[in-house]
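Input chain follows. Return C-alpha coordinates only.
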Amino acid sequence: ISSQDDEMDVESEESGSDEELNGWTEGDETQLLGLSSEIHEALEKHKLAKLVYMKISSLPENVMDIITNCAQSIALAKRVVRLQCCVYLCLNNLVSVVDMEQFGGPRALYSLVRSIFKQCLCLNPQQPGFECNAELIEASTAAIRAILLRLASFKFSDLGDINPYDLEEIFKIGILPEPRVQANVARIVGTLGVLLVSNPLLVKMVGNYLLEAVERQQALWLSAEALDSLMDVFADDCTDQMAAEINLVPRLQALTHRLKSKMRQERKTLGEHYPVVSTVMTNLSPFIKYKGARVAALRTH
Protein backbone atom coordinates (compact mmCIF):
# COMPACT_ATOMS: atom_id res chain seq x y z
CA ILE A 1 0.00 0.00 0.00
CA SER A 2 2.73 2.41 0.97
CA SER A 3 6.36 2.25 1.94
CA GLN A 4 7.34 1.33 5.47
CA ASP A 5 9.06 4.70 5.78
CA ASP A 6 5.80 6.49 5.00
CA GLU A 7 4.00 4.58 7.73
CA MET A 8 6.80 5.28 10.21
CA ASP A 9 6.66 8.99 9.35
CA VAL A 10 2.96 9.22 10.09
CA GLU A 11 3.28 7.13 13.25
CA SER A 12 6.12 9.37 14.41
CA GLU A 13 3.99 12.43 13.82
CA GLU A 14 1.14 10.83 15.74
CA SER A 15 3.26 9.78 18.72
CA GLY A 16 4.44 13.35 19.07
CA SER A 17 0.89 14.66 19.08
CA ASP A 18 -0.86 12.18 21.39
CA GLU A 19 -0.92 14.64 24.24
CA GLU A 20 -2.36 17.38 22.04
CA LEU A 21 -4.94 15.05 20.51
CA ASN A 22 -6.00 13.61 23.86
CA GLY A 23 -6.29 17.06 25.33
CA TRP A 24 -8.56 18.15 22.49
CA THR A 25 -10.79 15.10 22.85
CA GLU A 26 -11.04 15.35 26.60
CA GLY A 27 -11.71 19.06 26.42
CA ASP A 28 -14.48 18.54 23.90
CA GLU A 29 -16.15 15.87 26.06
CA THR A 30 -15.70 17.91 29.21
CA GLN A 31 -17.40 20.86 27.61
CA LEU A 32 -20.33 18.68 26.59
CA LEU A 33 -20.64 16.76 29.85
CA GLY A 34 -19.99 19.86 31.95
CA LEU A 35 -23.39 21.40 31.17
CA SER A 36 -24.73 22.11 34.63
CA SER A 37 -27.96 20.64 35.98
CA GLU A 38 -29.28 24.18 36.42
CA ILE A 39 -28.90 24.85 32.70
CA HIS A 40 -30.54 21.52 31.86
CA GLU A 41 -33.46 22.41 34.14
CA ALA A 42 -33.77 25.84 32.56
CA LEU A 43 -33.79 24.35 29.05
CA GLU A 44 -36.59 22.00 30.04
CA LYS A 45 -38.56 24.53 32.09
CA HIS A 46 -38.64 27.13 29.33
CA LYS A 47 -39.09 24.51 26.58
CA LEU A 48 -36.29 26.07 24.58
CA ALA A 49 -36.05 23.10 22.23
CA LYS A 50 -39.71 23.52 21.29
CA LEU A 51 -39.29 27.27 20.78
CA VAL A 52 -36.34 26.70 18.46
CA TYR A 53 -38.26 23.98 16.63
CA MET A 54 -41.12 26.42 15.98
CA LYS A 55 -38.75 28.99 14.46
CA ILE A 56 -37.36 26.62 11.81
CA SER A 57 -39.88 27.47 9.11
CA SER A 58 -39.03 30.43 6.92
CA LEU A 59 -41.49 32.90 5.48
CA PRO A 60 -43.52 31.60 2.51
CA GLU A 61 -41.46 31.61 -0.69
CA ASN A 62 -43.66 34.19 -2.41
CA VAL A 63 -43.32 36.56 0.55
CA MET A 64 -39.53 36.16 0.58
CA ASP A 65 -39.43 36.89 -3.16
CA ILE A 66 -41.40 40.10 -2.64
CA ILE A 67 -39.32 41.49 0.22
CA THR A 68 -36.04 40.39 -1.39
CA ASN A 69 -36.80 42.17 -4.66
CA CYS A 70 -38.15 45.33 -3.08
CA ALA A 71 -35.58 48.03 -2.27
CA GLN A 72 -37.55 49.19 0.76
CA SER A 73 -37.66 45.74 2.37
CA ILE A 74 -34.40 44.08 1.37
CA ALA A 75 -32.97 44.81 4.82
CA LEU A 76 -35.89 42.90 6.31
CA ALA A 77 -35.14 39.93 4.05
CA LYS A 78 -31.56 39.87 5.32
CA ARG A 79 -32.80 39.94 8.91
CA VAL A 80 -35.08 36.98 8.20
CA VAL A 81 -32.14 34.99 6.83
CA ARG A 82 -30.00 36.03 9.81
CA LEU A 83 -32.72 34.80 12.18
CA GLN A 84 -32.84 31.45 10.38
CA CYS A 85 -29.07 31.11 10.62
CA CYS A 86 -29.26 31.71 14.36
CA VAL A 87 -32.06 29.17 14.71
CA TYR A 88 -30.08 26.49 12.88
CA LEU A 89 -26.94 27.15 14.89
CA CYS A 90 -28.95 27.06 18.10
CA LEU A 91 -30.47 23.75 17.02
CA ASN A 92 -26.99 22.44 16.20
CA ASN A 93 -25.90 23.19 19.77
CA LEU A 94 -29.07 22.02 21.49
CA VAL A 95 -29.69 18.69 19.83
CA SER A 96 -26.71 16.97 21.44
CA VAL A 97 -27.36 18.14 25.00
CA VAL A 98 -31.12 17.99 25.58
CA ASP A 99 -33.46 15.05 25.89
CA MET A 100 -34.58 13.98 22.44
CA GLU A 101 -38.17 13.88 23.65
CA GLN A 102 -38.10 17.67 23.93
CA PHE A 103 -38.07 17.67 20.14
CA GLY A 104 -40.88 15.13 19.99
CA GLY A 105 -38.70 12.02 19.77
CA PRO A 106 -36.57 10.44 17.01
CA ARG A 107 -39.29 10.37 14.38
CA ALA A 108 -40.02 14.09 14.85
CA LEU A 109 -36.31 14.88 14.60
CA TYR A 110 -36.03 12.93 11.38
CA SER A 111 -39.03 14.80 9.98
CA LEU A 112 -37.23 18.00 10.92
CA VAL A 113 -34.20 16.85 8.93
CA ARG A 114 -36.39 16.32 5.88
CA SER A 115 -37.92 19.77 6.31
CA ILE A 116 -34.54 21.49 6.58
CA PHE A 117 -33.27 19.64 3.51
CA LYS A 118 -36.22 20.94 1.50
CA GLN A 119 -35.36 24.48 2.54
CA CYS A 120 -31.71 23.94 1.57
CA LEU A 121 -32.70 22.76 -1.88
CA CYS A 122 -34.80 25.89 -2.42
CA LEU A 123 -31.70 28.08 -2.11
CA ASN A 124 -30.45 28.86 -5.59
CA PRO A 125 -26.68 29.49 -5.69
CA GLN A 126 -27.11 31.44 -8.94
CA GLN A 127 -29.32 34.12 -7.44
CA PRO A 128 -27.88 37.56 -6.49
CA GLY A 129 -28.25 37.04 -2.75
CA PHE A 130 -26.29 33.79 -2.66
CA GLU A 131 -23.59 35.18 -0.35
CA CYS A 132 -26.21 35.40 2.35
CA ASN A 133 -27.66 32.05 1.34
CA ALA A 134 -24.24 30.40 1.61
CA GLU A 135 -24.20 31.30 5.29
CA LEU A 136 -27.69 29.87 5.64
CA ILE A 137 -26.71 26.62 3.91
CA GLU A 138 -23.72 26.25 6.21
CA ALA A 139 -25.88 26.74 9.30
CA SER A 140 -28.64 24.42 8.07
CA THR A 141 -26.26 21.62 7.08
CA ALA A 142 -24.56 21.93 10.47
CA ALA A 143 -27.96 21.41 12.11
CA ILE A 144 -28.73 18.40 9.90
CA ARG A 145 -25.32 16.93 10.66
CA ALA A 146 -25.90 17.26 14.41
CA ILE A 147 -29.41 15.79 14.26
CA LEU A 148 -28.34 12.77 12.21
CA LEU A 149 -25.42 12.09 14.54
CA ARG A 150 -27.83 12.16 17.48
CA LEU A 151 -30.21 9.81 15.68
CA ALA A 152 -27.32 7.49 14.84
CA SER A 153 -26.34 7.37 18.52
CA PHE A 154 -29.80 5.91 19.16
CA LYS A 155 -29.41 3.55 16.18
CA PHE A 156 -32.45 5.11 14.54
CA SER A 157 -32.85 3.40 11.18
CA ASP A 158 -36.40 4.13 10.07
CA LEU A 159 -35.29 5.89 6.87
CA GLY A 160 -37.46 3.90 4.50
CA ASP A 161 -38.41 6.94 2.45
CA ILE A 162 -34.81 7.77 1.44
CA ASN A 163 -34.21 6.96 -2.23
CA PRO A 164 -31.43 7.49 -4.81
CA TYR A 165 -32.94 10.79 -5.95
CA ASP A 166 -32.79 12.14 -2.38
CA LEU A 167 -29.11 11.25 -2.13
CA GLU A 168 -28.35 12.89 -5.47
CA GLU A 169 -29.97 16.10 -4.24
CA ILE A 170 -27.85 15.99 -1.07
CA PHE A 171 -24.73 15.42 -3.17
CA LYS A 172 -25.50 18.62 -5.11
CA ILE A 173 -25.33 20.62 -1.90
CA GLY A 174 -21.95 19.03 -1.17
CA ILE A 175 -20.32 20.41 -4.31
CA LEU A 176 -21.08 24.04 -3.48
CA PRO A 177 -17.84 26.06 -3.16
CA GLU A 178 -18.13 26.47 0.60
CA PRO A 179 -15.60 24.36 2.55
CA ARG A 180 -17.64 24.00 5.74
CA VAL A 181 -20.73 23.07 3.75
CA GLN A 182 -18.68 20.39 1.98
CA ALA A 183 -17.45 19.09 5.35
CA ASN A 184 -20.97 19.07 6.78
CA VAL A 185 -22.34 17.21 3.77
CA ALA A 186 -19.55 14.62 3.96
CA ARG A 187 -20.59 13.90 7.56
CA ILE A 188 -24.27 13.92 6.66
CA VAL A 189 -23.76 11.47 3.81
CA GLY A 190 -21.52 9.27 5.95
CA THR A 191 -24.06 9.12 8.77
CA LEU A 192 -26.83 8.28 6.31
CA GLY A 193 -24.61 5.52 4.93
CA VAL A 194 -24.24 4.02 8.40
CA LEU A 195 -27.99 4.21 9.01
CA LEU A 196 -28.76 2.74 5.57
CA VAL A 197 -26.24 -0.09 5.81
CA SER A 198 -28.90 -2.67 4.90
CA ASN A 199 -29.53 -0.97 1.53
CA PRO A 200 -26.66 -1.93 -0.84
CA LEU A 201 -27.65 0.47 -3.62
CA LEU A 202 -27.68 3.52 -1.37
CA VAL A 203 -24.54 2.50 0.50
CA LYS A 204 -22.65 2.17 -2.80
CA MET A 205 -23.89 5.62 -3.84
CA VAL A 206 -22.64 7.00 -0.54
CA GLY A 207 -19.30 5.23 -0.96
CA ASN A 208 -18.76 6.56 -4.47
CA TYR A 209 -19.66 10.10 -3.44
CA LEU A 210 -17.24 10.07 -0.51
CA LEU A 211 -14.44 8.51 -2.57
CA GLU A 212 -14.90 11.16 -5.24
CA ALA A 213 -14.89 13.84 -2.54
CA VAL A 214 -11.52 12.56 -1.27
CA GLU A 215 -10.16 12.39 -4.82
CA ARG A 216 -11.16 15.90 -5.83
CA GLN A 217 -10.40 17.82 -2.63
CA GLN A 218 -7.28 19.96 -2.53
CA ALA A 219 -7.66 20.80 1.16
CA LEU A 220 -6.33 17.94 3.27
CA TRP A 221 -8.80 18.52 6.10
CA LEU A 222 -11.74 18.16 3.71
CA SER A 223 -10.30 14.93 2.35
CA ALA A 224 -9.95 13.74 5.94
CA GLU A 225 -13.59 14.56 6.74
CA ALA A 226 -14.73 12.52 3.74
CA LEU A 227 -12.31 9.67 4.54
CA ASP A 228 -13.43 9.49 8.14
CA SER A 229 -17.05 9.25 7.04
CA LEU A 230 -16.13 6.65 4.43
CA MET A 231 -14.41 4.43 6.98
CA ASP A 232 -17.41 4.73 9.30
CA VAL A 233 -19.74 3.55 6.52
CA PHE A 234 -17.62 0.56 5.52
CA ALA A 235 -16.43 -0.43 8.99
CA ASP A 236 -19.20 -3.02 9.27
CA ASP A 237 -18.26 -6.44 7.87
CA CYS A 238 -21.62 -6.67 6.12
CA THR A 239 -20.38 -4.01 3.67
CA ASP A 240 -17.58 -6.18 2.23
CA GLN A 241 -19.43 -7.01 -0.98
CA MET A 242 -20.44 -3.39 -1.48
CA ALA A 243 -16.83 -2.31 -0.95
CA ALA A 244 -15.71 -4.79 -3.61
CA GLU A 245 -18.29 -3.53 -6.10
CA ILE A 246 -17.12 0.09 -5.88
CA ASN A 247 -13.41 -0.87 -5.83
CA LEU A 248 -13.04 0.76 -2.43
CA VAL A 249 -9.67 -0.74 -1.48
CA PRO A 250 -7.80 -0.10 -4.79
CA ARG A 251 -9.08 3.47 -4.89
CA LEU A 252 -7.96 4.12 -1.33
CA GLN A 253 -4.58 2.55 -2.04
CA ALA A 254 -4.13 4.93 -4.97
CA LEU A 255 -4.78 7.90 -2.68
CA THR A 256 -2.60 6.89 0.25
CA HIS A 257 0.77 8.22 -0.90
CA ARG A 258 -0.63 11.63 -1.90
CA LEU A 259 -2.47 12.02 1.39
CA LYS A 260 0.55 11.08 3.49
CA SER A 261 2.73 13.45 1.50
CA LYS A 262 0.26 16.30 2.08
CA MET A 263 0.15 15.41 5.77
CA ARG A 264 3.91 15.84 6.08
CA GLN A 265 3.78 19.14 4.21
CA GLU A 266 0.77 20.66 5.98
CA ARG A 267 0.77 19.22 9.49
CA LYS A 268 2.00 22.49 11.04
CA THR A 269 -0.64 24.59 9.30
CA LEU A 270 -3.74 22.47 9.90
CA GLY A 271 -4.70 24.32 13.07
CA GLU A 272 -8.09 23.25 14.42
CA HIS A 273 -8.33 20.51 11.79
CA TYR A 274 -5.23 18.67 12.99
CA PRO A 275 -7.00 16.23 15.37
CA VAL A 276 -9.33 14.91 12.69
CA VAL A 277 -6.63 14.72 10.02
CA SER A 278 -4.10 12.98 12.27
CA THR A 279 -6.67 10.44 13.49
CA VAL A 280 -7.76 9.64 9.94
CA MET A 281 -4.18 9.23 8.73
CA THR A 282 -3.45 6.89 11.63
CA ASN A 283 -6.49 4.75 10.85
CA LEU A 284 -6.21 4.69 7.06
CA SER A 285 -3.55 2.01 6.52
CA PRO A 286 -5.01 -0.44 9.09
CA PHE A 287 -8.44 0.07 7.53
CA ILE A 288 -7.14 -0.65 4.02
CA LYS A 289 -5.29 -3.73 5.25
CA TYR A 290 -8.32 -5.10 7.11
CA LYS A 291 -10.89 -4.34 4.42
CA GLY A 292 -8.55 -5.53 1.69
CA ALA A 293 -8.20 -8.91 3.38
CA ARG A 294 -11.95 -9.28 3.78
CA VAL A 295 -12.68 -8.28 0.18
CA ALA A 296 -9.99 -10.68 -1.06
CA ALA A 297 -11.61 -13.46 0.96
CA LEU A 298 -14.83 -12.97 -1.00
CA ARG A 299 -13.10 -14.24 -4.13
CA THR A 300 -12.21 -17.54 -2.48
CA HIS A 301 -15.82 -18.41 -1.64
